[in-house]
Amino acid sequence: MNKTDLLFYADPYARAFSARVLACEGAGDKWHIVLDKTVFYPEGGGQPGDIGDIGGIDIFDTKIHGGIVTHIAAVPLEIGAEVAGNIDFDRRYRFMQNHAGEHIISGIAKARYGANNVGFGLMESGMRIDFDIEMDDAALAEIEAECARAIELDLPIDARFFDNADHLDYRSKKEISGDIRIVSIPNFDICACAGMHVRTTLEIGIVKIISSQRYKGGTRIIALCGKDAADDYANKHGQIAKISALLSAKPEECAAAAAKMAQDLAAARFRQGQLLRQIFDLKTASIPENTPHACIFEPNLTPAEMQLLANQATTRAQTALIFSESADKIQYLLQTQTDTDLRPLSAALNAQFTGRGGGKPQSPQGLLQTTLDPLKIFLPTLLDNPHIIC
Question: What is the distance between the alpha carbons of residues 164 and 183, in angstroms, rounded to a whole number?
Answer without folding.
Answer: 14
